Amino acid sequence: MEKFIIAPSILSASFANLEKELDEVYSLGCKVLHFDVMDGHFVKNISFGSHVLSTINQEHKLFNDVHLMVSDPKFWINDFVKAKADNITFHYEALKNNNLINELITYIRSFNIKCGISINPKTDVKVLLPFLDKIDLILLMSVEPGFGGQAFNEEIYKKIEVLQGFKSKSNYKFAIEVDGGVNLTNTKNLVKLGANILVYGSYIFNSKNKKDSINKLYEEVKDL
Ligand code: DX5
Ligand code: ZN
Question: How many domains does the chain have?
Fold first, then answer.
């Protein structure tokens, strides 16, 4: 798995120029697209459904990294599989039941796509221990889910260290993804600690010069 993968979150993109914004991040070397799906119930915001996923990213075929911030993740799996999700991440807090979580992981992976599980800032990383051997990706929220443009919560560094510790003592292969307030100031530390997929919403899509902003990120991690 690559040491540093940029995952632009389209939540912060201009929906009036979505295809143009996608062309731009694709041309700047991004290989993953992060889709922040919100149901207005699990989080107090509504974003978009699988229709957006199925209508965009047809040309570039970036890796579709779907982040379900929804109360009933199982209900949405088939829709997003049909819309060509390559990874589907759901929230631990939506189920909080290890049997249901194990069942959902098996169900998602039965479609031959990747499966991730996410925890909010207040959730103890230890709740994930029973799933480390079967999950492809752990998404650590460094903000309360629901909105882009929030301030980064540094508590996340300890969680990455705990997970990296388990990875180094075992042959677990899960990727560590971080989402929320990620920008130029925290990228180096996150990658150094072991996070290898970083979600950037406002840092990229509010940038006046995406090329410069993205190049600065690669510059930050080049010696790691
Ligand atoms: C929160 C969203 C945001 C988004 C990233 O629910 O998941 O974290 O992807 O937005 P920024 O990078 O602006 O925090
Ligand atoms: Zn997200």
Answer: 1
Q: Is the shortest distance between the CB of 149 and ligand 1 below 6 Å? A: yes
**Nearest ligand to the C-alpha of residue 205?**
1
pTM of the predicted structure, to 2 decimals: 0.97
CATH of the domain at 78: 3.20.20.70
Q: How far apart are CA 94 and CA 97, in angstroms?
A: 9
**Can you give the pLDDT of all 224 residues of the chain as single tens digits?**
789 999 999 999 999 999 999 999 999 999 999 999 999 999 999 999 999 999 988 888 899 999 999 999 999 999 999 999 999 999 999 998 999 999 999 999 999 999 999 999 999 999 999 999 999 999 999 999 998 889 999 999 999 999 999 999 998 999 999 999 999 999 999 999 999 999 999 999 999 999 999 999 999 999 99
Nearest CA to ligand 1 atom 5: 201
CB distance 179 to ligand 1 below 6 Å: yes
Consecutive H or E run containing 18? helix 18-27
Classify 40 in phi/psi space as left (phi over 0), alpha (psi -120 to 50) or beta. left
Calpha distance 190→152 (Å, rounded):
12
- Ligand 1 pocket test target in 199, 204, 214 with most atoms within 8 Å of CB: 199
Catalytic-role residue among 39, 65, 136, 179: 179
- The number of residues making up the chain comes to 224
Q: Is the CB of 150 under 6 A from ligand 1?
A: yes
Range of the domain at 209: 5-221
